[in-house]
Amino acid sequence: MGWGYLPPFVGLFLLLIIAWSLLWKGLALWRAAHRGEKVWFIVFLILNTAGILEIIYLFFITGAKLSDFKLPDSSHHNHQH
Question: Each residue of 1-32: pLDDT tens digit?
């Protein structure tokens, strides 16, 4: 049995799960590296938990807020010529 037997939404669902997991894994790896937490970094690198462990670490262990992960707004920068 191959992928051809699965309904199309299954592939889309898997892509969404992969994107979701990569987002949270990337944020957790980044934060653990910046905080010098080697054990957490290794745990996130090895385990795949669909973002669950990463979310727990980010928001409950480190106290992060969603606003901590927003890109800087470049419209407020003054450009001098």
Answer: 566 687 888 888 989 999 999 999 999 999 99
For the chain, the first-to-last Cα distance in angstroms comes to 63
What SS3 class is residue 66? helix
Please indicate, yes or no, whether the overall pTM of this predicted structure exceeds 0.85: no
d(Cα 4, Cα 9) in Å, to the nearest integer? 12
Who contacts 71 (Cβ-Cβ below 8 Å, separation ≥6)?
none
* pLDDT: which is higher, 76 or 72: 72
Cβ–Cβ under 8 Å, residues 54 and 27: yes
Report DSSP letters for 3-64, one per residue: GGGS-HHHHHHHHHHHHHHHHHHHHHHHHHHHTT-HHHHHHHHH---TTHHHHHIIIIIS--
